[in-house]
Design brief:
Layout lengths: L1 H32 L2 H6 L12 E6 L4 H4 L2 H6 L4 E6 L9 H15 L6 E3 L15 H14 L4 E5 L3 H4 L1 H15 L8 E5 L4 H4 L5 H6 L5 E4 L2 H12 L7 H9 L5 E6 L1
Parallel strand pairs: 1-2, 1-4, 2-3, 4-5
Antiparallel strand pairs: 5-7, 6-7
Helix pairs in contact: 5-11, 6-8
This protein binds 2-acetamido-2-deoxy-beta-D-glucopyranose (NAG).
The site of 2-acetamido-2-deoxy-beta-D-glucopyranose has 6 residues, from strand 2.
């Protein structure tokens, strides 16, 4: 009896976890559909109305916005949105193509080309081991914040989700602006939480696990929104190697974003 019981339990536990995730998702959807103001209020008082939220997403490479930030971008659809991508993603000399793909994917996510800026700077190369200069980067980001009167900056956290040096540099630059009081008054910063490798590929199974952790903002996509995120990812045609296709189906970042205020 006991001998057959163990494999049976092993088989059953992912199923139970899956059912719990589905149930929780269904139950929580009401909350998630509420406007972003309510969600942002979880963290700090957010008094303005949604359309007064002027959010700037700061990413490192074309495709970061979809692979990591799609849930936040789609959930902040009521806000005014901008995207600043700090490189063209030219590591494999595909910069020009990737820039085009970025504009298409952003349009799918609801950010028009006029609100997307791609920095192409000699000193900010797309490279997994190059740490970008904090002073140069923070100057460029701050200029963008001031020009567009941004009051919410969304970027990577200190671990940069995938640990990419360029991602971590963005955090360092924004952190610097924040701690040196250089950001305009009322401008808040949200950083995308890096989760363990185990949680990273749990897709929506990671939803119940989020309940055990604290975060300031939690965005979970509905099925329709998750489809939209996938469609945005298919715009990055030059990047769709087999492992990225798998990523789209298994990464929790395609459906869940947990974020912290600085
Ligand atoms: C894009 O930027 C303009 C200002 O340049 C702003 O009015 C508009 O709301 C932004 N679009 C979106 C979708 O947020």
């Amino acid at each position: 009896m006991a001998a057959t019981g163990i494999p049976f339990a092993l088989l059953l536990s992912p199923l139970v976890l899956w059912l719990v995730a589905c149930w929780w998702l269904r139950r929580s959807r009401g909350t998630m559909r509420r406007d972003c103001r309510a969600l942002l209020a979880n963290g700090r008082a957010w008094r303005e109305s949604d359309d007064a939220v002027r959010a700037l997403f700061v990413t490192a490479h074309p495709d970061d916005e979809t692979m990591f930030f799609a849930p936040s971008i789609l959930k902040l659809a009521q806000a005014r949105l901008w995207l600043l991508c700090a490189s063209t993603g030219n590591y494999y000399n595909q910069g020009a193509i990737r820039k085009e793909e970025l504009l298409q994917s952003c349009a799918t996510l609801g950010i028009p080309p006029s609100n997307v800026t791609v920095i192409d700077h000699r000193d900010l190369p797309d490279h997994p081991s190059v740490k970008w200069d904090t002073s140069l980067l923070s100057t460029l980001i701050l200029k963008h914040i001031e020009t567009n009167q941004i009051n919410l900056v969304v970027t990577f956290d200190a671990r940069g989700v995938s640990g990419h040096a360029n991602h971590k540099s963005l955090y360092a630059a924004v952190r610097y602006l924040h701690s040196e009081w250089k950001l305009p008054e009322g401008c808040q910063v949200l950083t995308l939480e890096t989760v363990s490798l185990f949680r990273k590929y749990l897709s929506i199974l990671d939803v119940p696990i989020n309940c055990l952790h604290s975060q300031d903002v939690l965005f979970v996509l509905t099925e329709e929104e998750a489809e939209l995120a996938k469609r945005a990812m298919w715009c990055h045609r030059s990047q769709l190697l087999w492992f990225r296709r798998l990523y789209v189906f298994f990464s929790r970042y395609m459906v869940i974003n947990s974020l912290h205020f600085l």
